[in-house]
Amino acid sequence: AQSVTQLGSHVSVSEGALVLLRCNYSSSVPPYLFWYVQYPNQGLQLLLKYTSAATLVKGINGFEAEFKKSETSFHLTKPSAHMSDAAEYFCAVNTGANSKLTFGKGITLSVRP
Amino acid sequence: DTEVTQTPKHLVMGMTNKKSLKCEQHMGHRAMYWYKQKAKKPPELMFVYSYEKLSINESVPSRFSPECPNSSLLNLHLHALQPEDSALYLCASSQDRGWAEAFFGQGTRLTVV
Fold first, then answer.
1. Residue A68 sits at the chain B interface (C-beta within 8 Å)
2. Cα gap B14→B32, rounded to integer Å
3. Tens digits of per-residue pLDDT, B69-79?
4. Alpha-carbon distance B113 to nearest alpha carbon in chain A (angstroms)
């Protein structure tokens, strides 16, 4: 069975500080991994995805993530937080068996001025 | 065009009403999804259509009835809902492959009174 774990429910950083949002996956087969962002009262927007082409993946809005098989992790980072980054972030996994995305519980990012 | 369009954006309905949610995409995607999202929770998969056939029903109550009239349209028919069904309903589409990201609509905010 495939799943992702996002530890914690809330991360708060100062504007300009490093953003680190953690995601660990559990999958019996090589996974496809995704990070989505959701702003209040909106749908989900893809930030980036890992599909085995490269372990360091760059996404939109300055975000990137590194796939580490030895740690079963796919943490999301951004060198310098901006106020507009405040949102809910979801990690998701798909093993390709049936086009079914499984989401982590999400984490709220707050950015302090 | 990378948009998934959902209508209406907001819907208030009584427990005896019948209503429908609509979703449209013109990206040529052959997989379409309905998700339900409660506040501060991740999206929960309800249904998956693959090539216009229902491929996954996540044990959703029969008061929710999906329909895929053609490859671009997805409907969710609602009947005799309960107040606990109030949520954000998200439609998504993707290429029918595990590595493919899902594109989400803005959602319909449903309130059952």
1. no
2. 27
3. 999 999 999 99
4. 20
